[in-house]
Amino acid sequence: MGRAAPSDQTAPTVRLAETGDASDVAELLSQLGYPCTRDEAIERIAHLREDPRHYLLLAEIDGHACGLISSHTRYSLTHGAELARITALVVARSCHGQGIGRQLLREVERRARRDGVSRVEVTSNVSRTEAHEFYRRCGYADGSLKFVKTLGD
């Protein structure tokens, strides 16, 4: 990261993230508003790679990381079916407007269909109004209101 924006002529590739991608993952998570060190990213990537119900995908252009998406598949009691939840989606600031976010969403959706999942959900902080519009443009509808309680002693 921190390199010049990739050329517009090269299409992004999407692949599973590996522990060697930790610096890029940490930078992208920090851009999303969740500061993360390289060592923390190594642990997080390793944890997700151990569980086949998690995907952490990295988008690259010309070998440079330009975005990531993570998802988790679980059984929903209320829907009586498997559902996938997107837990993070970020595109590097230098790469906005190139269709990378949409490509990452499509890849999660493709993997979900392949895995027999019929529903994909995503939550987004109430302040991220541009993200909300992006999800709507990608076919996602407004859903449930989410409540959060941080547990700490």
From TrEMBL:
Molecular-function GO terms, alphabetical: acyltransferase activity, transferring groups other than amino-acyl groups
Keywords per UniProt: Acyltransferase, Transferase
Ranges of residues in domain N-acetyltransferase: 12-153
InterPro entries xref list: Acyl_CoA_acyltransferase (IPR016181), Bact_Acetyltransf (IPR050832), GNAT_dom (IPR000182)
Keyword Acyltransferase: yes
Top-rank taxon: Bacteria
CDD domains: NAT_SF
Keyword Transferase carried by entry: yes
Entries under PANTHER family matching the protein: AMINOALKYLPHOSPHONATE N-ACETYLTRANSFERASE-RELATED, AMINOALKYLPHOSPHONATE N-ACETYLTRANSFERASE-RELATED-RELATED
Name of this protein: Acetyltransferase (GNAT) family
Native source species: Lysobacter enzymogenes
